Automatic annotation (TrEMBL):
Gene Ontology cellular component list: plasma membrane
InterPro entries assigned to the protein according to its UniProt record, in alphabetical order: AA/rel_permease1, APC_superfamily
Subcellular location: Cell membrane
Pfam families linked: AA_permease_2
Species this protein is from: Glycomyces albidus
TM annotation in the entry: 24-49, 55-75, 96-117, 137-156, 163-183, 203-224, 236-258, 285-307, 339-361, 367-391, 403-423, 443-462
High-level lineage: Bacteria, Bacillati, Actinomycetota, Actinomycetes, Glycomycetales
Name this polypeptide is given: Amino acid permease
Length: 497
C-alpha cells in the first residue's frame, strides 16, 4: 500500500504541541460549568435529598474520581488518542467492548452538550424579557448554537483562549458569592453538613449521581492528549487539578449556601430555583442578580463549546480509525481542527433544537434536565467501564508504573464507581423527580444498554468483514500503520504498536 500524500496526512492529523496544562484546565473546568452546578445543581440537590449533606456528597465523589484518575492518567501516559475512554476500553478490555464504549461515549457527550442549549435558551429569554424584548427560547439557543459551531471549527488554542476568559470571570463570581454567604451567616458557621449522618437514605444515590455529573469534564484532558505539550505530564496535571479545583469550589459554595440560610431552613429555601442569585441580591445588591444570570449564560455557552470539542474529537477518532464514516476523521489543512466531526456535531444539535421548537417541548425540563441527567447516567457507566479497562490493562503489564497507580488505585476506583453506578440506577427515579416504577428511569439504562450492544455488534461485524479496520481499533494516529500491516499480513508489533 502506498504511503499517504502530505496533504492527506495533514487532513487526518490534529494540531501538535498546542496546549499546556492551563489550556487543558480551561477545557475541563468550563465543561463542568461550575456556576451552573452551584446556581442550579446544588439547589436541586437540596430539594431532591431533603438533607443538608451536599458538601459531604461532593467530598465522597471527589475522592472517588481522584482514585479513578490515578490509574486513568497513568494509562494516558502510554496511550494518546482523541477517543480517550473509547481507546482505553479498546486497549484494556478488547476491541469489541471498545466500540461499544465508543457508541455510548459519543451519544452521551453529544446529548449532554445539546441539553445545555435548553438552559441557555430559557435563561436568556428571561433576561431579555426584562428589557422588553420577548422572543422564544429557541432563538437564543440557536444563536449560541451558531457561535459554538463556528468556534468549533477554529484552531484548538483559540478555543482555549476564549474559554480562559469566560472561566476566570465565572470562578471569580462564584468565589465572591461564597465569601458573601460566609460573611452573612444565619446561625454561625456549622459543620453539620459534613457529618456522615447528614447524607443517607434513598436520596443519597441521587445526590451522588448529581455530584458526579457536576464533575463531568474532568476527564477531557486525555481527549486533547494528541494536541498537548509534554502530554505525559500535562494531561495528568490538568486532570487531577480539575478534580481538586472543582471539589474546593463545590464544597465551599454549597457549604456557604447552608451557612447563609441555616441548617434547618436550607431545604425549604431550595424551593427557590434562583436561591444562589437571591442570596447575592440580598447581600450585595439587586444588580448582582442580573450579573450572575448573565454570567450563567456565558458559563453554559463555554460548557457547550467545551463539550462540542470533546464530542467532535470522539467522532474524529472513530472516523480516523474507520470504525464509522471515514470522512469524520478529516481535519482542516489550515487549523488542524476536526472540521468534519465538528460540523456533524453542530448539525445534530441543530436538528434537536428544531425538533424541540416544532413540538413545543419544555426546554428546561425535557431538554436540559431530562436529557442532561440521562447522559450523566451513560457517562457514569462509561467511567466505570474505563476503570475496569485500566485495571485490566495494567494487569497484563505494569509498564513501570507504581503498584499504587497500576493496581491499588484502579481496584479502589472500580469498587467505588461500581457503588456509585448501582446507587445512581436504583435511585434514578428520585433524581428525575418521578414515581418509582415510572417508564423514564427504566428506559434510560435500557437505551444505553441497547447502544452498547449495538456497538458491540458493530465491532463483531468489523472483526469478520473488515479485519484490517478491526486491527486498528484504539490505536489512534497509528491506526493506518496497524491497518496496513494487517493487509500485508505483517505482525502488528512490526507496524509500530
Amino acid at each position: 500500500m502506498s504511503a499517504p500524500s502530505p496533504a492527506s496526512a495533514v487532513q487526518s492529523a490534529l494540531a501538535r504541541d498546542k496546549l499546556g496544562t492551563f489550556s487543558l484546565l480551561h477545557f475541563s473546568l468550563t465543561a463542568a460549568t461550575p456556576l451552573t452546578v452551584i446556581a442550579g445543581g446544588v439547589v436541586v440537590m437540596f430539594a431532591v435529598a431533603g438533607q443538608i449533606g451536599i458538601p459531604l456528597g461532593y467530598v465522597i465523589i471527589a475522592v472517588s474520581l481522584w482514585l479513578f484518575s490515578v490509574g486513568y492518567t497513568a494509562m494516558a501516559r502510554h496511550i494518546a488518542n482523541a477517543g480517550a475512554m473509547y481507546a482505553f476500553v479498546a486497549r484494556g478490555l478488547g476491541r469489541v467492548p471498545g466500540v461499544a464504549a465508543a457508541w455510548v461515549a459519543a451519544t452521551a457527550y453529544c446529548a449532554l452538550q445539546i441539553s445545555l442549549y435548553g438552559l441557555l435558551g430559557i435563561t436568556a429569554q428571561g433576561l431579555f424579557e426584562r428589557t422588553g424584548l420577548s422572543l422564544p427560547w429557541w432563538v437564543f439557543a440557536l444563536a449560541a448554537w451558531v457561535l459554538v459551531g463556528l468556534l468549533g471549527t477554529r484552531a484548538v488554542d483559540i478555543n482555549a483562549k476564549v474559554l480562559a476568559v469566560l472561566l476566570t470571570v465565572e470562578v471569580a463570581v462564584i468565589l465572591l458569592f461564597s465569601v458573601s454567604n460566609f460573611a452573612h451567616p444565619a446561625d454561625g458557621l456549622s459543620f453539620a453538613s459534613l457529618s456522615p449522618s447528614a447524607l443517607g437514605g434513598e436520596a443519597a444515590g441521587a445526590v451522588l449521581a448529581l455530584a458526579v455529573i457536576g464533575f463531568i469534564g474532568f476527564e477531557s484532558p486525555t481527549v486533547y492528549g494528541e494536541e498537548a505539550r509534554d502530554r505525559k505530564r500535562t494531561v495528568a496535571r490538568a486532570t487531577l487539578a480539575t478534580i481538586g479545583i472543582l471539589a474546593v469550589i463545590y464544597i465551599a459554595a454549597s457549604w456557604s449556601i447552608i451557612t447563609a440560610v441555616g441548617d434547618d431552613d436550607v431545604v425549604a429555601a431550595s424551593a427557590d430555583p434562583d436561591l444562589m442569585f437571591t442570596l447575592a441580591g440580598d447581600q450585595l445588591g439587586g444588580a448582582w442578580v442580573t450579573i450572575g444570570q448573565v454570567l450563567l449564560l456565558t458559563s453554559v455557552t463555554a460548557a457547550a463549546l467545551s463539550f462540542h470539542n470533546t464530542t467532535a474529537r470522539y467522532l474524529f477518532a472513530l472516523g480516523r480509525e474507520q470504525v464509522v464514516f471515514s470522512w469524520l476523521g478529516r481535519t482542516s489543512v489550515r487549523t488542524c481542527a476536526p472540521v468534519a466531526a465538528s460540523v456533524t456535531q453542530t448539525a445534530v444539535g441543530g436538528a434537536v433544537l428544531v425538533l424541540w421548537a416544532v413540538l413545543g417541548l419544555d426546554p428546561l425540563v425535557h431538554l436540559f434536565f431530562y436529557l442532561g441527567t440521562a447522559s450523566g447516567i451513560g457517562l457514569i457507566a462509561l467511567i466505570l467501564t474505563c476503570a475496569i479497562a485500566v485495571l485490566t490493562y495494567f494487569a497484563r503489564d505494569r509498564r513501570d508504573e507504581s503498584v499504587w497507580a497500576a493496581v491499588i488505585a484502579p481496584v479502589l476506583a472500580v469498587l467505588v464507581m461500581g457503588g456509585v453506578m448501582y446507587l445512581s440506577v436504583i435511585h434514578f427515579h428520585t433524581l428525575l423527580g418521578v414515581e418509582e416504577g415510572s417508564l423514564l428511569p427504566t428506559l434510560v439504562p435500557i437505551l444505553f444498554g441497547a447502544l452498547a450492544l449495538l456497538g458491540a455488534g458493530w465491532g463483531l461485524f468489523l472483526k469478520k468483514a473488515r479485519p484490517e479496520v478491526y486491527a486498528g481499533i484504539g490505536h489512534g494516529a497509528k491506526a493506518p500503520l496497524v491497518q496496513a500491516a494487517e493487509r500485508a499480513a505483517v505482525p502488528v508489533g512490526a507496524a509500530g504498536e
